[in-house]
Amino acid sequence: MSSIDNSSDPTEAERLNQHCICVTLDRPAIAHNITDQLGDNADEILSSAAWQQFFSNTAVFIPEQILGHMQGIVHALEAAATLPDYRRRVLSWAPQSAQIDPGLSGAFMGYDFHLGADGPRLIEVNTNAGGAFLNAVLGHAQIQCCGGSTRVSGAEGFNAAVIAQFNSEWRAQRGSGRPTTIAIVDEHPTEQYLYPEFRLAQQLLQNNGFDALILSPSDFIYEAAALYSGDKEIDMVYNRLVDFGLEAPDHAALRSAWLDGSAVITPNPFVHALRADKRNLALLSDRDTLLEWGLSAEHAELLHHGIPRTVPVTAANGDELWQQRKQWFFKPVAGHGSKGVYRGSKLTQGTFARILDSYYIAQAFVPPSERVVMVNGERQMLKVDVRLYTYRGAVLLAAARLYQGQTTNFRTPGGGFAPLMLLDDSVNIKSRAQIDNF
Questions:
Q1: Is residue 342 within a helix (H) or strand (E), and if so which, with residue range?
Q2: Cα 249 to Cα 268: distance, rounded to the nearest angstrom
Q3: CA distances, 19 to each of 13, 237, 372, 432 (Å)
Q4: For the chain, first and last CA: distance in Å?
Q5: Which residues pair with 360 in a beta bridge?
Q6: Residues 57-104: pLDDT tens digits?
Q7: pTM, 2 dp
């Protein structure tokens, strides 16, 4: 387990995040990168309003040991997910479609952290985590900032890791070879806010010899134990849907292909049930139960300290949670994208009554760290979330999002995706007075 410096003195990373205001993003470089990848099709992305909101001008500094600590928490969770007792418990509340395990690990797992004074805290786990392809482009368009030597986390080997990931998922279910046709699937994909990254994913797959399509579930037909789009058979689905159990009537073709294994679907209902169902966090933060189930003491301690206490919201604990609401964050079990999420300090009695009538978890509130940015010539402090994109516990990419408000968003001036600048915190890059002059 990585050691964390709990001293009261701010780290070099914290000083930089609080005071360094230099711009790290080279916007012409990022536009050039997109044009290189998409050619004539780049204009539809570069001219969109969404494109202007994706990226912050400012990077986030973190010590390398903090990244290592986050990786340790991910490895501990992956270890817990192999325990037979853990699997039995989480599958007991999962939908029927999640009871099938074809051996896949799930493409683009996302682990979201807040960086608190006592170290990183894992606040959520996501399947089909969005933003990886955009953050990979962002990582290649950064300028060194505030002197010294730093490096951007993870962008350099991203493309090769992505292709290896999809090939690995295929072999896990099929044994050998690789898919011919991969469908990138979401509801009405061209209308999705992150549609530009679907285009980047499609181009990367095509550049590596795959026939890659961007499709909506309505584009599929299930026929003769095979999944088709038109007359083209679909071998693999890169699933970006938020119907995690594939239970919606409009997803019947995908569901049939999943149930009989006629297409390799990643991520899928089993992966979500095992790792990303929000109810699982109550188990993963329970050290004694994990030890009883056979998890190592080191991994159990990492999860106990690294995951905020999480409990299901029930009628039995409703009064206590209401009285202590300022200490909690409330999240719907089936929610996604910060929908239906409430900070306890802002709850009304009416909203809490609706929470009690729904399926929610309560998570101990962990305030996010902050990063200074310049907006219209004025300094502003934005909140920071950090996401690790992983496959089988290995980090494909690490990035941050800067925002204001209760939850992450792309509406904040100066906010958006931001790369992580890794530094050795034992090295003093610049004095605080020098940083203030940037």
A1: strand 342-343
A2: 17
A3: 10, 44, 6, 8
A4: 36
A5: 332
A6: 999 999 999 999 999 999 999 999 999 999 999 999 999 999 999 999
A7: 0.92
